[in-house]
Amino acid sequence: MSLQDLHERLLSWATAEPRTGDLLAARNEYYARYGEPREDELSYESRVNGMLDHYLYDYRPNGGKTSTLENFVATNGAEMDAATLDAYRTLTGNVHGLFEVRKIEEGRVVLRDVFSDVDHEVAERRQLAGLHKGDLIEVVDLGAEFLHQLAGTLDRNNKWKVTVAGAELTLHDGQRARTTQIERTRPFRARR
């Protein structure tokens, strides 16, 4: 089963009744934190997909301890073959954060977590247009050779001002600011 098939099966389950209330709560939480996208924005589709990824992989319904994905595995795991169940369990180990692009080669990208300095090697079959060494991006590495860009590239040509104050990370593009809470506090090293 491909990653796309796994994702579509999870999304189908997670957006059906009786979980639509959880989806709406996750949507409200996500857009309160990052701002609601406008349909005329170039990043509209990627921001909506970012919200859905948040709901599927990071959101804890009703303030619980398990994510939507973990709830899906607990509910449906007994009906899955071993390979599919293992694939979903691998997805529960996703990594989400702000990364610096360290190396781009055919078939792979090396990303460094800007807060922990841990490198992650990600297999990527697609050509990553517009992504360059030194760029800062918010990504989810789903552990299944998959790179998903959530918030778009934070341009390395000084179009984004990035500041960290305590546990808040603020990005400003000259027109508006986006602030998010971060769990790890390590001095941010701005790069040009």
The strand count comes to 8
What is the number of independent domains?
A: 2
Distance, first to last CA: 41 Å
Task: Output the number of helix runs.
Answer: 5
> Mean pLDDT across all residues, rounded?
75
Unreliable stretches (pLDDT < 50, length at least 5) are 143-169, 182-192
What is the CA-based Rg, rounded?
A: 17 Å
Order of helices and strands: HHHHHEEEEEEEE
- Please report the first level of CATH classification, the CATH class of the largest domain: Mainly Beta
- So, CATH architecture of the largest domain? Beta Barrel
Derived from helix and strand composition plus strand pairing, the structural class reads alpha+beta
Main sheet attributes: strand count, strand direction, barrel closure: 5 strands, antiparallel
CATH fold type of the largest domain: OB fold (Dihydrolipoamide Acetyltransferase, E2P)
Give the amount of beta strand, in percent. 25-35%
Shape descriptor reads globular
How do the strands line up in the largest sheet?
3-2-1-4-5
Please estimate the helix content: 25-40%
Characterization of the model:
With 192 residues, the chain is of the alpha+beta class. The protein folds into 2 domains: 3-91, no CATH class; 94-192, OB fold (Dihydrolipoamide Acetyltransferase, E2P) (Beta Barrel), CATH 2.40.50. It is 32% helix and 27% strand. The chain is built from 5 helices and 8 strands; from the N terminus they run αααααββββββββ. It has helices at residues 3-14, 20-34, 44-58, 68-76, 82-91; strands at residues 95-105, 108-113, 119-123, 136-141, 147-154, 161-165, 168-172, 177-181. The strands form 2 sheets. Strands 3-2-1-4-5 form a 5-stranded antiparallel sheet. It has a 3-stranded antiparallel sheet with strand order 6-7-8, with no helix packed on it. β6 (161-165) and β7 form a beta hairpin. α2 packs across α3. It is globular and about 45 Å long. The protein starts with a helix and ends in an 11-residue tail after the last strand. Residues 143-169 and 182-192 have low confidence and may be disordered.
